[in-house]
Design goal:
heterotrimer; A alpha/beta; B alpha/beta; C alpha/beta; A: Rossmann fold; 8-stranded mixed β-sheet; 8 strands; B: alpha/beta; 7-stranded mixed β-sheet; 5-stranded mixed β-sheet
């Protein structure tokens, strides 16, 4: 990926938070850069975007990195906050939320589904580090089956949202999300293109982006903090959707694109309110 | 002004709209459902938005979001929903976000009886979230009319103190019908003593000054001032920081902006027959206080020197009313005794503090009169309630 | 009027008990009185017991509870048995014999039979107007406290449909009590 870090940092990020306090070898920065690159390619300014973050590695590390306005929600609730905020914001302002897998697919799944249901204009970037890593490394609901973590010392054996034919994207599509994509951190420009389309969709968009955690996931599952191992682990299990096979855990690419196919939440609400105000009925 | 017969739920709706509330998000729960319904009916007429959330936790978070975007917002529930506010309540306290929360108490714990009044959230409105290191303001009206007024007041206090304010009612106040008088313009609002405060925008760079000052506008997303807010301990600029010194300053503000500015709301109480050093002071809030008032009227006619102190501002607890060494009787809608504990704490050590609790229904006037007489004659109380501890 | 007038109506869900209280309350507001009305019911159950407690006064009303109602409109046996003993000696129980079968003859208060359901069926072929019949009867009993026309106006405001039948039913009840 062609990426001129210094100029993008000057343009969009707060130097006070860069570099971040992430562990050595953490892949979150790659995901973060993908999003910033997409924003830059869309010619957006810091004041065009309100940045929301969650709890956990992904949220904490990205909070207050954006030069514009930013907020962090309690665990799993940033989607509900963003829905309320969407009502109050001018429609041209964008909301981007960088969150973790536990936040989005565990504690916050119900709020996430309702954000998708209402087709609320926001772009949720789920930075999936394969579990709960900021608490030391426990399995999440998209952690690959069999993986050894601190809370699955014998291997993760539960049914989850990313195995046995299951994919969390089915839930989100069924709920009404209008743009869904998945990329792993190493997807480079393909990932940037998907994030651009996600941001441009006037509705609910989500990009699922698994990334490597050498410190906790790598050390428990792969027996080493050597980042090469965890990068290889993810790369081996990710394939573009067209060439995915039975061993593929993360089929990458644009999973569902119905951009603009349904009225956006806040626009729909305000149009309805305005009609009731003027005519007394819908 | 217009005057008509309506429920407390409707009166609260009128109050919220008068105060500038243009966003309501709730979740159906008896006995606060009609409030949500009235909001759904009325708000669009004023260009406001009613939303129904996936649960109470989501509801208050959506209110937070709209408040974060500059709107005046309210949510309403009963006890089982109020407990789900714990998460967003903490966020709103920490991020100093103004909003109004109505709790219509019903008998508990858990679901209890939907249609029976209760006062089980006295302490919960003081500690609506975890972690401590904050102060809360709670207003407890005792009629539909006053519920309207206190909701307007809650919006005023929420803005000035930059925090969520709870209006604590009960099933009888919200579900009950009463004649209400509603002001129709700003002059009439002033005439009725309604105070309002416009939302401002914090332009930074100090978003969380470590002071006890009021009237600092809240952070607003989308205002382009680089505002930050999070659930973490903030620096004055809003950055997250893991330093105990910073947390001390933050916590000090959350506590002392309220404690050092009590004069803004500590006039919210009602005293009846309290000018002649009564031998017994009956303390209550909410609907039971109305029965107490009637009972105290009758007691005075019978020559008993009883006074009534009704609290409207419950938190911070108004200790200043309990300086006299006399007999106190706390009357409340629960059997475990909540208000009474606070009266015991606030009253002089050698004052006698008694308790009369009911569970799911109001106390009756004969019960109250009998209790007054016994206490004045130093006879033991036989009612259930406080004595349950001995069971 | 006296400084405090208490009216209790109680029956089961769907009879219009709350509506009845609401109409009298609305009329009292029009008369310039202060009003409270508590409604209690098992909220999620149809057919459960419903009670409306209305207090009218020229002054601010403290307790909204009707501990000794001046009037008690009983529309079910359960309600009658539960609240009959709260009615003071100078109070009045109005009961509908279609719903209240066993009358306690030992009560010191006045008891008036009002076959509202039967009158509604006889005059209009439908029991739904029995509530308006009962309100007409109450208008007669409350003469001097609340104006008959004001109660009727409130009735027509609160119940927006079938104005003609409701007006007639109201008169039937009023005449029955006269």
């Amino acid at each position: 990926m062609q990426y001129s870090s210094a100029s993008l940092i000057d343009k969009y990020l707060r130097t006070r938070k860069i570099p971040s306090t992430a562990c050595s070898g953490c892949g979150l920065g790659i995901n973060h850069k993908v999003v910033i690159q997409a924003i830059d390619e869309l010619d957006l300014e810091p004041n065009d975007i309100i940045w929301g973050t969650s709890i956990g590695c992904a949220g904490r590390q990205t909070f207050a990195t954006w030069q514009g306005d930013g907020f962090a929600g309690t665990h799993g609730r940033v989607y509900a906050i963003a829905r309320g905020l969407r009502i109050a914001l001018p429609p041209e302002k964008k909301i981007i939320c960088t969150v973790g897998d536990g936040d989005a697919f565990g504690i916050g799944l119900m709020h996430l589904i309702h954000a998708a249901r209402s087709n609320c204009d926001m772009t949720v970037i789920v930075n999936d580090n394969l579990g709960y890593q900021s608490t030391g490394g426990q399995f999440g609901f998209t952690t690959p089956q069999g993986a050894k973590t601190d809370s699955s010392p014998y291997g993760m054996f539960e049914h989850n949202l990313m195995s046995e034919g299951m994919d969390v994207m089915h839930i989100l599509k069924g709920a009404g999300a209008t743009f869904l994509a998945r990329h792993v951190a190493m997807d480079g420009t393909r990932a940037v293109d998907s994030v651009k389309r996600a941001i441009e969709n006037p509705g609910f968009s989500l990009v699922h982006m698994p990334y490597p955690c050498p410190t906790n996931f790598g050390s428990r599952e792969l027996g080493s903090r050597n980042q090469v191992n965890i990068y290889r682990y993810i790369k081996e299990r990710a394939k573009p959707m067209e060439s995915a096979d039975d061993d593929t855990v993360w089929a990458t690419g644009v999973w569902h694109d119905a951009s603009g196919s349904r009225p956006e939440f806040s626009e729909h609400v305000w149009n309805s309110v305005e009609k009731i105000r003027r005519t007394g009925a819908l | 002004m217009k005057r008509f017969l309506e429920t407390g739920n409707f009166a609260i709706t009128e109050g919220a709209i008068l105060a500038g509330c243009r966003f309501f998000c709730g979740y159906p729960i008896t006995p606060a459902t009609e409030l949500a319904e009235a909001m759904a009916q009325e708000l669009p007429k004023y260009g406001g938005v009613y939303l129904q959330a996936e649960d109470e936790c989501g509801a208050m978070h959506m209110c937070i979001g709209a408040a974060l975007g500059g709107m005046k917002t309210m949510t309403a529930t009963s006890g089982p929903g109020y407990i789900l506010y714990a998460d967003p309540f903490g966020w709103a306290l920490g991020c100093e976000m103004p909003l109004v929360v109505v709790n219509s108490g019903r008998v508990g714990p858990v679901s209890g009886i939907t249609g029976a009044p209760g006062q089980g959230e006295f302490y919960l409105t003081r500690y609506p979230t975890q972690g401590g290191n904050f102060e809360c303001i709670t207003l407890a009206p005792n009629s539909a009319q006053e519920a309207m007024a206190m909701v307007v007041e809650a919006f005023y206090l929420a803005e000035r103190f930059r925090m969520p304010i709870t209006v604590l009612g009960d099933q009888l106040i919200t579900d009950g019908f009463e004649d209400i008088t509603v002001p129709e313009n700003e002059d009439e609002m002033k005439e009725m003593g309604f105070r309002t405060y416009e939302r401002g925008v914090c332009t930074g760079p100090e978003f969380y000054p470590y002071t006890d000052e009021l009237d600092i506008p809240p952070v607003q997303m989308g205002s382009g001032h680089g505002g930050l807010c999070s659930d973490w301990t903030p620096t004055v600029e809003g950055y997250d920081i893991e330093e105990v010194e910073a947390h001390h300053k933050h916590a000090w503000r959350l506590i002392y902006k309220v404690r050092n500015n009590k004069e803004v709301f500590n006039h919210l109480y009602e005293k009846k027959y309290m000018d002649d050093d009564p031998d017994l002071v009956v303390v209550s809030y909410g609907t039971p206080s109305r029965v107490v008032n009637t009972a105290v009227d009758r007691a005075r006619k019978e020559g008993l020197k009883v006074g009534a102190l009704r609290l409207i501002n419950l938190w911070p607890f108004p200790d200043e009313h309990f300086t006299r060494k006399t007999k106190y009787l706390a009357v409340e809608l629960n059997w475990d005794g909540q208000l009474v504990r606070e009266v015991e704490r606030a009253a002089p050590k050698d004052a006698q503090v008694n308790f009369l609790g009911t569970c799911g229904d109001l106390p009756t006037i004969p019960d109250l009169l009998e209790t007054f007489e016994k206490l004045l004659k130093d006879q033991p109380l036989e009612r259930k309630g406080w004595e349950l501890e001995a069971w | 009027m006296k400084d405090r007038l208490e009216i209790v109506a109680s029956g089961f869900g769907g009879q219009g008990v709350v509506r009845l209280g609401q109409v009298l309350g609305e009329a009292a507001v029009k008369e310039g009185l202060r009003v409270t009305m508590l409604k209690s019911h098992g909220t999620e159950m149809r057919g459960g017991y419903v009670r409306a407690q209305v207090v009218l006064s020229p002054e601010t009303i403290d307790s909204p509870m009707c501990e000794n109602p001046d009037y008690f409109v009983a529309l079910s046996s359960a309600a009658y048995n539960r609240f009959k003993d709260t009615v003071p000696d100078d109070g009045v129980i109005i009961f509908d014999p279609a719903f209240v079968e066993d009358i306690d003859g030992d009560l010191p208060c006045t008891q008036k039979e009002l076959p509202a359901k039967q009158l509604a069926v006889d005059n209009f072929g439908r029991p739904i107007f029995s509530n308006s019949v009962a309100l007409g009867a109450m208008a007669k009993l409350l003469e001097g406290d609340l104006g008959k026309e004001i109660i009727l106006d409130s009735l027509l405001e609160v119940i927006p449909k079938f104005h003609e039948e409701n007006r007639d039913a109201f008169q039937v009840g009023y005449d029955y009590m006269s």
